[in-house]
Amino acid sequence: MVKNLSSSITNFVPMNIFMHSIIGLLIMFFGRYLPAPSILVEPTQKLNDLGFPLVDGMSLITISEIGMTVVSIFLGVIYCWTFANMIWPCFLGVFLLGASHYAPMNTVLMGFLGNPMTVQIFCMLMFAAALIQSNVAQYLARYLMTHKINNGKPWMLTASIMLTSYLVAFLDQLSSVFLVMPTVTCYMLRTISRE
């Protein structure tokens, strides 16, 4: 049973990416339990005002527990970006940062996504990618562009391009640019190259 499970995982994901993902997850989840690095420096009035403790007449500067949590999440995400994947470590890192005591989740999400317009564009591009992968936009553009009314009539072709853009704009304004223009351009280039 275990052999079948391990072989099915390695058939889906290459073993080196799987191992690097596990290492990255270990860094993210358990890196906070490593001893925090610290350094002793000459005490100054500024360090005393900030509340750094004195040890043997020197100021002890160390990373706090929350700081170790944030650093371990950051290093785990960087490790996974480097060796495993670029997508899921981002979202996992944001989730872990929101689940830690660093900041509330809404603050972390606002820092991650910034303006609400960024969230809207992100969702529109995901929607546009889904429509492009399912060939809905290509079908719609092809149907409207290859209609018999367009043959030999440049103004009807122009009106068809505008109508196609208008119809796809009902899906979303930004996605219409990403959906219609590449499809129309590719169709026109293929038509020109055949002639």
**Radius of gyration, Cα only, in angstroms?**
27 Å
Shape: elongated
Q: What is the number of helical segments per DSSP (H or I, 4+ residues)?
A: 10
N- to C-terminal separation? 60 Å
Largest sheet: 3 strands, antiparallel
Element pattern in H and E: HHEHEEHHHHHHH
Question: Fraction of residues in helices?
Answer: over 70%
Low-confidence stretches: none
Strand order across the largest sheet? 1-3-2
E-strand count: 3
Strand content: 5-15%
What is the total number of structural domains? Answer: 2
Derived from helix and strand composition plus strand pairing, the structural class reads: mainly alpha
Average predicted local confidence, pLDDT: 76
Quick overview of this protein structure:
The chain has 195 residues and is mainly α. The chain contains ten helices and three strands.
Structure report:
A 3-stranded antiparallel β-sheet has the order 1-3-2, with no helix packed on it. By secondary structure, it is mostly helical. It folds into 2 domains: 2-114, no CATH class; 123-194, no CATH class. The mean pLDDT is 76. The relative contact order is 0.07. It is built from 10 helices and 3 strands, in the order ααβαββααααααα. It is elongated and about 90 Å long. The N and C termini lie far apart (60 Å).
